[in-house]
Structures are given as structure tokens and as C-alpha cells.
Amino acid sequence: MTRLAPVPYEEWDTEALRPLTGGRTVPPSNALGLLLHHPRLAKAFLTFSTQLLYRSSLPDKMRELTILRVAWRHRCRYEWTHHVVMARAAGITEEELQEVRLGTATLVNRAVDELETTSTLSDEVYADLAKELDERQLMDFVFTVGSYGLQAMAYNTFGVDPDPGMDDAGMSDAGVLNHGVPTTGVDNTGVDDRPGNGGPGGPAT
């Protein structure tokens, strides 16, 4: 249920959107329509979020897998649908999307789940990330998880609907899949706790 309807497109404050658009015209967006209820906040937040999305030092695929895992855990349909499109454009496969949904013990899923659960990383997961990422990339990773968790919280709280025509790509309110994939062991955060999948049922592989 939408609690705060998007500001109508014809009433948009284009100056507040400048950190994202650079003055260019952009199509309607329910997320931007929400932010524009508070132009000063919109301008400040878009400066930060644009840095993480378009100037991040993370590889594109890793950034999108990170955002998708956050969106899945928060059951944020807006974030999920928007970034599934970007993920596919970055070369992420349907198999990799399935790993996000199931909480398979990939390095990204393990790291996102730890940050979301404990607000820190274990020495083991930090060391594994540090083998793949330099210092700036590690910072971008942590800030990306935090920023998109914040956005998911806002979109869910204010009831931001996916933009028209967007596909939810298998998201389920119950935390299970809708297209024939076995759901035993998948909890309501999308974490697969079956043995061998990194949950309580077995060690991460």
C-alpha cells in the first residue's frame, strides 16, 4: 500500500535531481517521485547514492549482486525489480540470480548476510573479500550494503511500487520461489540453511 504517493512528474524539482541527472531529462520513477517530497534530502542523498552506483570501484557484477541480495533480504520489490534489469545488463545470469534468491553461500551472499545480521564482518569473510578487493573496493562494498538497506527501508515504509512494466523476477513475500524450485530450508530472509549452503545446517563452501 502506497503511503506517500510520488510527486507528479510535471511537478518535479529538476535542480534537486541534478546530482543524478546532471541536468538531463529522466523518465518518471516512483523512487525519485518519493524523494522529491523532500528536495533538500533528495539532493544530498542522490549525491551519495550516485557515487555508489555510477562511480563505485566495485566490478559491475559484484555491485549488482550485492544490491540484489540486500533487496531480496529486505523484500524490497522496487529495489529488486530495478536492479534485476541492471544486473542482467551487467552480464549476471539466471543461475546467479537464483543463487541470490536461495542465499547460496557465494562470497557476496555470505558478506551481505553477515553485515545485515551483525553489522560487521567475521575475520574469515573479511579475509576472503580482501583476496578479491582492494581497500577502496572493500569500503565501497560495505557502504553499498548500508546504503541499499536504507533505501529498501524507505521504499518499503512509504510503499513505493515498482515502476510500470517492471518484472519482479521471482520475488516472493514469503521468502520462497514461485517457479518450481524446492524451498525446503529457505527461511523468510531467503537464506538457504540446508547443509553445504552456508547456513546453520552446514559449513560454507
Brief synopsis:
By secondary structure, this protein is an all-alpha fold. It has helices at 18-21, 30-35, 39-54, 60-74, 77-89, 94-102, 107-118, 123-132, 135-158.
Principal-axis shape equals globular
Order of helices and strands: HHHHHHHHH
Number of strands: 0
Helix content: 40-55%
Radius of gyration: 17 Å
Question: What is the mean predicted local confidence, pLDDT?
Answer: 86
Class derived from helix and strand content = mainly alpha
What fraction of residues sit in β-strands?
under 5%
Q: Identify the quaternary structure here.
A: single chain
Largest sheet: none
The first-to-last residue Cα distance is: 40 Å
Tell me what the structure shows.
With 205 residues, the chain is mainly alpha-helical. Helices cover 53% and strands 0% of the residues. It is built from nine helices and no strands. It has helices at 18-21, 30-35, 39-54, 60-74, 77-89, 94-102, 107-118, 123-132, 135-158. The radius of gyration is 17 Å and the shape is globular.
